[in-house]
Amino acid sequence: MHSPKRRSFSWLQPFQIKPSKPAYAYGIRMLVILGGPVAAGFLLHNPGASVLATMAALSVGLIATSGTYLRQIKTMGAATIAVTLALLLANLIGDRTVLTLVVTFFLSFLLSFASLWGAAVTGVCLTGLLMFVISLAKFSSFADPAVLLEQCLLCVAGGLWAISVAAIFWIVRPYAPAAAAVAESNSALSQLAKSLSSDIYQTNRQTNRQINKASIQQNAEQQQSMQWVHSQDRVLQTLSAARNIWTSAWTTENASSSRGNRLLVSIEEASAIDRLLNALARLLITTASGRLLANIKPEIKGVIEQVAIALEDLSIALKQKQPARQPVSLFALEQSTQRLESQWKSLIHHIRRKTIEIQAADYTELAHLRKMVLTLNDLSDRVVIATQHITQNAANHPTQTPGPSIDQTDQSIATLVATRPEQTAWRETLSNNLTFRSVTFRHALRLAILITLSQLLSVLLPIPRGYWITLTVLFALKPNYGGTAQTIGQRVLGTVIGGVVGIILVMVIHSPLALILLLLLSLFAAIALRPLSYSLFIMMLTLGIVVLFEAAGIGSWEVGVHRIVDTLIGGAIAFAGIYLLFPNWEQQRLPAQLESTLQANLAYFQITISQYLHQCQPSAESDAKRIDPTFTSSLHRLRHQAALQNSNAEAAAQRLFSEPRHLQGEIEPVMALLFYTRSLFSSTAMLAEHLKENIDSEAFCYIEPLADALEQALLTVARALGQKLPLQPLPPLDDYLDDVCDRIQKLHRDRLQELTADLPKTTPTLQQIKSQTPVATELSQIVRATEGIHSVAARLGKTL
């Protein structure tokens, strides 16, 4: 239960700061973009004419996009064309009310489909629709061609000015956006490592107990576990963005470069570091209750801490034009790794000298500790390699750290291509969403109706600036209830506070110079704080608008009142629309998402386990021990798809929890299913990592019955959830697992007898223990996860 003190401040939730940094450079850039047309208007003794150019420059400058500089310039150019066409269309139909409403409806409906083609297209279409709404209210000349031509030229000039300023602010380096994206990925990895170092031990000791008590959402430990999940999702998002940006740069340049190749290798090294961190987390879960972990736990924690520091230093180096030769943190990382290896050798020495007594059951933990040490060594090496690729200065240090080889670059490109999503033709994408079952179609129809209704109200009601109602609906309405409610709360609260503060300030301050300085400061703060909080952005923007009207002499304190009232009306319209017009609640879509998530994780498990079993078939060839390159490419692709589906399922669950309580259903089973699915993914990833140890697949034929039973069980649950079929009973998973565990325990007993007989340090039995114990452990975890998924699915089948 929340404390009264915590509840009393719940109204401040919309001002929650995102984990980001203020965009100071962006704020300065926008001030220059806005200042250019305004200064030109004063110099030409026609400040009124600069209003339209300033509006166009602001609209184009604010468009959010990513990718290479060329792609950003193209997006801003398209936005310039969009605002000009929107102004032209508004002028042509602005004096015909009925025609205006009809065009507004169809334009809003069609442009709402832009989200199907990414953020850049969405930004261009939203900018055009924004300019159309404002032009209908403020810039329509209706019948004068000369004025219309002048306005269009002012729009083009404003957009071109914004593009020119952006180009000046950009440093002309073709891979700078890619370097920034890779830096963000390494920063996210650093946070993931810090989370692993600080609380992963306490988090996972309680996890199974939390599931059994059905109290996931209420436990502080589970909240920490969810933070780990969110950190994983952030890494996935940043890596996907880095891959897309690098691919755009590589395609644009149509050639390789040393800088680009090093960045590509850094992206793939970051992906490998992510896999190793997740494997390490899994190993820590497995060994958390063991008695041998305490012997090397401080050294393990030390290596993880140094990895986090080194990754943060790597992120900083990527953002620098001329990074340092080699961060000091690499030396500390190497020292901590050496201490871990020394302590591990000491532990093995004591076991062989029998100063530490062990039982047959301890060999499972010992095998996992060995795997953990190897993983940490690999992790340390990956961080060092990634750093050296970036800090290399071939001109001054030709003998140090050679750049990536051609084979290594080609392999990285192949991996990158394998993880890219398949492109669908735009006609097929559009036709697939021209159905009432589509979320995008429903949102487009809903938005078109509400925008048209808002436009009608602004015409019929005696509201001075009724287009503010329309703009509130345009920006507040989202495809889902939770996103809409959150945006409405943020926009309303920011507008009310900013409006009240603005009213007070314009009533107190009367100096034109002070008002101009306050205007510049508020606009700079709005743009700079935009990445941190939407509420803060709206608050400072509203303050700036109130001050602007006062400074321009076209309004006074009443402007703040009008904006608050219009925002409240627009927020009410948006809220009523998302609740009443064609609602598509998350609970209705969740079964299909859960089916896709389980199917993706099942495919990842199938391709991983197939490599352990590929020599068990009678037709297997003798040279099948080598891992096929096509298998590696498919493995990367299916792992990426499974991770993406897990993230999508998590996002769907968050949307479900933000909907009205009576529509949510039971929350705990959904959270439990997500937890077990993540556990399945983590164990499968561990099995995939274990393949790198050159295992002998002939030794794993005994796990085939268990693997087949797991595949059957997961496929049955996925189909039952997605198609609402009766859930079939589980195969005898425990019986198959017992057969596997009995074989491993026999190996442990045999090894204990070898130690008693003082046989050589390395024997075939020891090699089999090293190879087979981790596999048996992860299969055991997968069995537990599958049983949990089946149990939770049985409960969900009654509520979904």
Notes on the protein architecture:
- It is a single chain.
- The protein is mainly α.
- The protein contains 29 helices and no strands.
- α12 packs antiparallel against α13 and α23 packs parallel to α26.
- The longest helix is centred in the N-terminal third of the chain and has 34 residues.
- It is elongated, with a radius of gyration of 30 Å.
In short:
The protein contains 29 helices and no strands. The protein has helices at residues 4-8, 24-43, 50-61, 69-93, 97-111, 119-138, 145-169, 176-205, 207-213, 220-253, 258-287, 297-319, 328-352, 362-391, 406-419, 426-433, 439-460, 467-476, 481-508, 512-529, 534-552, 558-580, 586-613, 629-657, 661-664, 668-690, 704-723, 733-756, 764-796.
Describe the secondary-structure layout.
Elements: H1 4-8, H2 24-43, H3 50-61, H4 69-93, H5 97-111, H6 119-138, H7 145-169, H8 176-205, H9 207-213, H10 220-253, H11 258-287, H12 297-319, H13 328-352, H14 362-391, H15 406-419, H16 426-433, H17 439-460, H18 467-476, H19 481-508, H20 512-529, H21 534-552, H22 558-580, H23 586-613, H24 629-657, H25 661-664, H26 668-690, H27 704-723, H28 733-756, H29 764-796
